[in-house]
Amino acid sequence: KTILFILLCICVFENISCLNSICSLPKNAGPCKAYFPRYYYNSKTGKCEKFIYGGCKGNQNNFQSSKDCEQNCHK
């Protein structure tokens, strides 16, 4: 039981630190020219903000809705 609990704690911690690193990435619209309204977490303002995603490349700090951004990045 103890080992299972420790493994569970490690998995939870790893997911939280992974999300934190995604949320600290800068806004990146990517090089393509499509027009997809998206949201990213601005770590300087502590808020989810709208931006236009070009449709390719970019990074993982890219959410389809403000709600998704807030659920993943607000502390």
TrEMBL record:
GO terms for cellular component: extracellular space. InterPro entries: Kunitz_BPTI, Kunitz_BPTI_sf, Prtase_inh_Kunz-CS, TFPI/VKTCI-like. Residues 1-18 form the signal peptide. Keywords: Disulfide bond, Protease inhibitor, Serine protease inhibitor, Signal. CDD domains: Kunitz-type (cd00109). The keyword Signal applies. It comes from the Eukaryota. It holds the Pfam family Kunitz_BPTI. Residues 23-73 form the BPTI/Kunitz inhibitor domain. One of its GO terms (molecular function) is serine-type endopeptidase inhibitor activity. PANTHER family: KUNITZ-TYPE PROTEASE INHIBITOR-RELATED, TISSUE FACTOR PATHWAY INHIBITOR. This is Serine protease inhibitor-1. The lineage of its organism: Eukaryota, Metazoa, Spiralia, Lophotrochozoa, Platyhelminthes.
